[in-house]
Design goal:
With about 170 residues, the chain is mostly beta strands. About 0% of the residues lie in helices and about 50% in strands.
């Protein structure tokens, strides 16, 4: 009895968005199947803000000087006329869908008295060389009532991230 074994080996290329499957019979390739595919971000998963190891303190920098917190509410070292401090947060799992703009990303801060402050999101983009990491630049609000630590979170299409601490002075 002669049994012919069919074996299939395939590989995918994320750059071309194509899957190629080679069909082999007794060590000879007898066919090829090709399929196109698209890798789409999960549109319902919540993003995650990067924090320092074993803490809930956010990995956050002044967007101009790259200095760590605590941040002043106003500074002369920025590129705007309003002198408000802008900070850069880092998140993973924050993927814009094709055709979306930053309007689907929101941010907020919560102080020690549980007052909520909406934060203006001014930029969202991938960190060069780190496809998994997204940079989110936010503007600190005019109406913070107290200095100290605040909890910051971002939302993507309504899915809220973890809360991470940043310091305000």
């Amino acid at each position: 009895m002669n049994l012919h074994r069919l074996v299939s080996f395939g590989h995918a290329s994320a750059k071309s968005g194509q899957y190629e499957d080679h069909i082999w019979r007794e060590r000879k390739r007898v066919g090829t199947r090709k399929s196109n595919f698209t890798i789409a971000p999960n549109s319902t998963a919540a993003p995650t803000l990067l924090t320092e190891w074993n803490t809930n303190r956010s990995v956050t920098f002044d967007s101009v000087t790259f200095v760590r917190d605590p941040f002043p509410l106003a500074t002369g070292y920025n590129f705007s006329f309003d002198q408000r401090t802008r900070v850069t947060l880092f998140a993973f799992g924050l993927e814009l869908m094709p055709g979306e703009d930053i309007s689907v990303v929101t941010a907020q801060a919560e102080d020690v008295e549980h007052r909520i402050y909406p934060l203006k999101v001014e930029y969202v983009g991938k960190v060069p060389g780190f496809d998994w990491l997204t940079q989110v630049n936010i503007r600190l609000p005019d109406d913070f009532l107290s200095a100290g630590d605040v909890l910051v979170s971002v939302s993507l299409r309504g899915a809220v991230s973890n809360k991470a601490v940043i310091g305000i002075r």
